[in-house]
Amino acid sequence: MRTIPDRESLTIEFKSDLSHLPDRDLVTTIVCLANTEGGTLYLGVEDNGTITGLHSNHQNPSNLAARIANKTSPPISVRVSIIQEEGHLVACIEIPKSTRLIATSDGLLQRRRIKADGTPECVPFYPHEFAS
Question: For residue 1, what pLDDT is reported?
């Protein structure tokens, strides 16, 4: 039985890892979720929900969590578990909702929103949007 959700939402994100998702893209997505409601990133799942598996460089959960903490400011602590689903390994990355703004280590702020068609997206978080 499949345990991974079948589609993305405000708190669920899928990222393909077939050709090794760059750290910058991974960390941007983590920041986006942390600055909204938190959520779960499934690394190794295509946008359409097809499970395709993890690149070998992302199969160590401790290394993945450390890489994320090192590339976020302030460092964010995520929980990473590797699950086997439909014969593939998938990284399940649980991101807490942050109580303060989180940026990538190179200063990118993102937040998540739902588009008119009901699908989620990450968008820039502008200074005028910060709660005072």
Answer: 86
